[in-house]
């Protein structure tokens, strides 16, 4: 069995290699490849592997870009530090994913699933499943996003235009904070629900607690760890940090 590892964090890649060798000592490992560019070059020079373990966030983009350019017949196990939208898509499309840090038992389960699929799936299963996933994750140019959100102000319900929103924050309930410093309670149950309604060109899911509008970000600074701290025009009571895994894609989004 040949396995290709696509991962831009050396320590994570080393751990994945270690786990794979413990579970399948006879497997032929390729990689790790740390970027979309390197992966595309690898596919130009090598036959398709039996299985791919691919991180979502890479040094120069996201691994989905690789599979847009190179349609594949083999299954892919995606890994991610945190990407709820992608996780929901994987569940819908039956392509496995693992949350970092990678757990040996979960990887074992993924390999078991892979081996069952090898015995039962038709040759066109993975290409069609992967294409469905990629279609789900493409920017939805025709999707209609929500531009007004209702929230509670004293005893009234008010409508807030998206251009007046600085950020949403989860703090026991979901709060909407406006550009004029109003802090309003919404009826939403989770940030996931709100994230699906927002234009991803204008809003970014910073972490589990915050969704931030681009125009509300005055600047950002990079920590020595690789994480990014956002500095907002409307200060939040917490430090708003984007993980190292998502830093590269955030920079691309912020510059667009």
TrEMBL record:
Enumerate the GO terms in the molecular function aspect: phosphorelay response regulator activity; transcription cis-regulatory region binding
According to its UniProt entry, the protein's GO biological process terms are: regulation of DNA-templated transcription
* This protein's GO CC annotations: cytosol; protein-DNA complex
Instruction: Write out the entry's keywords from A to Z.
Output: DNA-binding, Phosphoprotein
Identify residues that carry 4-aspartylphosphate.
55
Q: Which domain of life is it from?
A: Bacteria
Q: Where's the Response regulatory domain?
A: 2-115
Name listed for the protein in its UniProt record: DNA-binding LytR/AlgR family response regulator
Which organism is this protein's natural source? Answer: Runella defluvii
Q: Give the source lineage, highest ranks first.
A: Bacteria, Pseudomonadati, Bacteroidota, Cytophagia, Cytophagales
